[in-house]
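Re: beginner question about structure tokens

> Can someone show what the tokenized structure looks like for a real chain? I only ever see the sequence side.

Sure, here's an example I had lying around. Input first:
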Amino acid sequence: GLPQIAEWPDRLAVEGAARDVATLYATARMAAIQRGTRVRIEFGPDSLRAVFEGARDSVFMVRPGPAHRGVAFRASRRIIRVGSGGYGWGAANTTVVLTRGARRTSLIISRLGRLRWRH
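And the corresponding structure tokens:
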């Protein structure tokens, strides 16, 4: 019983960081569809950003990155784009890996814009 209890802080931190990334992605994707414009999503350990792209870029969402939860971050691509139809541009199988202690979660974004979690 004790080892499982000791893993809870790591589990909660990794799941919270994964939710942060997934929420930013889903919100940015819906914003691209609703506004009919391309959105650039920037993943980083210290911040997560979503930017409407156009003649003048417009940052519309910034969130703390996984580091604020003490979670290590690795991404196969740091920047992806979502088109006005919700499809990913340069996003094919983008993988975001979040780790803390023995806990690890991966988020995979397909070129079709789908997001899958792998624990």
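Each token stands for a local structural state, so reading them left to right follows the chain. The radius of gyration is 15 Å.
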